[in-house]
Structures are given as structure tokens and as C-alpha cells.
Fold this protein.
Amino acid sequence: MKKVTHALTMNGRVHGEVKDPDLLPREVIEQRLGLLDGVDRYSLSLWRLPVGVPFDRVDLAVWPQEYVQVAGSADRMTVEVRRPGDPGERQYVVGRAVPDNSGPAGEVVIRWNGCESRVYSYEVFSAAEAAEVFVRYYETGQVPDTFRLRALPL
């Protein structure tokens, strides 16, 4: 059996390894993203386990320190990534590259769990689109080069 390297967190409180006896990691990620309804299941984070630490020994009070996450529903969500920065960690909204001649981007509201996130139209994803970002993050620890990152205020 392949070594488990990553975990998923649903709604900021339900944690589990990325493993399934019948599904590839890509399929597990796609399945979980597709479950988001914005109400009962409204967020999902993917993060790498600390090296050499089994999942049941991870201190969830201090881990994860880096991750990719979504909030919203399967048909309308925002994607963010957290990375180390200076100072401390930095949070970024993931978006598609926008041609210079596309005009101003409209603001869109993503609702989840009674909250809302305001992002630009090119920063709204479906579960299938977000899966591309999550799978690349799973494989490399990075967001695909075809996407851009917008830093959130500290």
C-alpha cells in the first residue's frame, strides 16, 4: 500500500487521510469537492502531513501550516492557498489569468455556512475546476502555473 502523505479537512473540524482502498488520490479529492453544498459541507482543505509523522500523531492545534482550501458549494467556490511568507504565513486567493483587454472584473459573492467571501469573477471555481488546483497541489505542493495568486491583506 502506498504511503499516506496528505490529509483533508472538512469544515475546519473533520480531518482524515487522503486514502481509499478503491480510489486514487485524485478521485478522493474530486469526490470530496463534489460533496460541497455551501451549508452542511462548505469548506475543504488539503494539506501535507509532517514528514515522518503518522496522521494519528499530528498535532492539529499547530498543523497544517500550509494548505490549499475551498469554501462554497460544488458549483460556486473560492480557492485559497496558504504559504510561508515574510512575516509569517500568507494567504492568497487563486484565480485564472485574465487577458489585459478583458475589462474590469466584477465582484462575486460566494456564500458558505452563513458567511460570505467576495472575490473577482475570475476567482470563482466549480468543483471540477478546483480539483485541478488540488491535484497539482497534492502532487507538487504548488498551484498550477496557469493560475495567478492574489495576496489577501495581513
About this structure: The beta strands are 6-10, 14-17, 43-48, 67-73, 76-84, 89-96, 107-112, 115-120, 124-125, 147-151. The first strand starts at residue 6 and ends at 10. The chain has one domain: 6-151. The helical segments are 25-34, 127-140.
